TrEMBL record:
<comment type="similarity">
    <text>Belongs to the short-chain dehydrogenases/reductases (SDR) family.</text>
</comment>
<dbReference type="GO" id="GO:0016616">
    <property type="term" value="F:oxidoreductase activity, acting on the CH-OH group of donors, NAD or NADP as acceptor"/>
</dbReference>
<dbReference type="InterPro" id="IPR020904">
    <property type="entry name" value="Sc_DH/Rdtase_CS"/>
</dbReference>
<dbReference type="GO" id="GO:0030497">
    <property type="term" value="P:fatty acid elongation"/>
</dbReference>
<dbReference type="Pfam" id="PF13561">
    <property type="entry name" value="adh_short_C2"/>
</dbReference>
<dbReference type="InterPro" id="IPR002347">
    <property type="entry name" value="SDR_fam"/>
</dbReference>
<dbReference type="InterPro" id="IPR036291">
    <property type="entry name" value="NAD(P)-bd_dom_sf"/>
</dbReference>
<protein>
    <submittedName>
        <fullName>3-oxoacyl-[acyl-carrier protein] reductase</fullName>
    </submittedName>
</protein>
Amino acid sequence: MRLSELSFRGRTAVVTGGGSGIGRAIALGLGRLGGKVCVADMGVDRAESVGAEIRALGGEAVAVQADVTRPEAVERMALAARDAFGRIDVLVNNAGGASGPAFRIGRVCKLSERDWDDTFAANVKSVFLCTRAVAPLMLEQRHGCIVNMASLTGQFPFPGMPAYSAAKAAVISLTRSLAMELAPHVRVNALAPGLIETPRTSLNRRPEQLDQLLSNVPLARMGTVDEVADMALYLASDAAAFVNGTVMDCAGGQMWMTRDGRPAFRDIAG
Ligand SMILES: NC(=O)c1ccc[n+]([C@@H]2O[C@H](COP(=O)([O-])OP(=O)(O)OC[C@H]3O[C@@H](n4cnc5c(N)ncnc54)[C@H](O)[C@@H]3O)[C@@H](O)[C@H]2O)c1
């Protein structure tokens, strides 16, 4: 398949954290391109609302409430997708994050064991559990691909975010490990977004932080969820049939340095 012919017609996908932000954009993109989508989210209203958006676009979708840190919920999610569509071609392990009720950013001396564990559960254990639940079917089908949502912080740790940075580094390592283990019929790749504008990131950002944050981004702006989604759609499609075990940055060239090369933004933990 050439990129100009991008289509998911006849393909089915599970998108975790599909109810908001980047996951929502990926789910909508898959639906728009003809894919049948299982939108999984811990927030059932969010999942259902994205499922309804996909159906309004003429696509097929089911919504599943699942906390992807819980093995029973993940097994139920995989079964629901299989029951609805008969197969699973694409798994997007997108659920996760660095802030919100389940996760905290914070410097290491102030970080609780609970926050450390929750951050790893949401970002790493979830990828393991979802892959373990879906990969057997992909191997049986002799076709599948997995896209894991890492972060630029997994490659260039962000000061003040040790748990999240380490968790996303683990996602990158897990991606490479799975890419070897599940080949040749299942491909596994990761995306490493930088600063992406989502309802969550704009909510968590103090206004004065934006300039400081953007001083580290050569392209001098936040990325959009659709820009990340387009990269996920590429990795999930047959246009990327020879792409395996890779980590693609979507970060405007950010390397945690100012555009003139001085280290700048040191600590967002406050
Ligand atoms: N937005 C950014 O700037 C950015 C940058 C780098 C990486 N990322 C990563 O991209 C992914 C999506 O981030 P976003 O900014 O779109 O987040 P978001 O908060 O807008 O959406 C995340 C969605 O995932 C769901 N979710 C969270 N934990 C879950 C769980 N345990 N089980 C099921 N659903 C769960 C939430 O309910 C929410 O609907 C995350 O893995 C995040 O770490 C985001």
